[in-house]
Design goal:
seven-stranded mixed β-sheet; alpha+beta
Length: about 300
Amino acid sequence: MSMSFTIRKFLKNNVKSLAVNCSAKRQIQPSRFVSTLPRKPTFQSNHTMRLNKPRFYASSTNREEIRAKAAVGPFTFKAAAVFLGVGTGLLLYFQSEKKRVEKLRKEKEAEKSKTQSFGKPKLGGDYVLTNAETGKPFGSEDLKGRFSLIYFGFTHCPDICPEELDKMAEVVDITKKDIGDNILVPVFITCDPRRDTKEIVKEYVKDFHKDLIGLTDTEDNIRAVAKLFRVYVSSPPDISEGDDYLVDHSIFFYLMDPEGKFLDCYSQNSEAEGVAESFKSYYKAYIESGGKLKA
């Protein structure tokens, strides 16, 4: 019995020692084979696999295309048809409104011109003087059928009359260039018939324009025509033959239409370009109203 006890004790101690050694070997030895042994395949769920998949990000070009598509929106043929229909309707509407506004503007301008015409002074009228070039009678009837620009002055004027006649000649040249010949007739009427004879006036007007018509006559006839145009004329009362003197007079151009009616007057401060532009507007209005010029 003591023998059995001894054997059991020996075996118990050796078995514990052997178990400890085997356990240590199991923990150390697998590391030598871990790289050589094939791994068992691991199985993952679909959700886990989707999460572990590599992600691909859009490039900058793709992002711009996506933004462009988002900005355009769902552009369809139906939307295009609606867009074109609305655009065409708006275009037609604005065109009709533009025509209506233009028509109203012209009507207002016509009414305004009528109102202004009622307020114009009654200048001009029938008269007959002497043409310095031909020596024959010439007057308001001879000017009908064309526009005329009339100026009262005198040949002995030192500066103002020559400047104004130069201006008149420039207006005539602008009219010839922009409209045509035989449209506007320049006329010079002396307000100093005592000195301005036919011969003197004939030579005087040649210095300014070849179309300029010079008129003179008796003092009474000149005074009567000046009164028709409300031209102020003043000469020294006591003058003798051969005396040198100045004549005080109004400084205006008088624009007359082809029917002999007064249209407008232009003062000394007016520029040739401004007078020409003003005349063009009168000419256009006259033609548009059905007026005709003498051929």
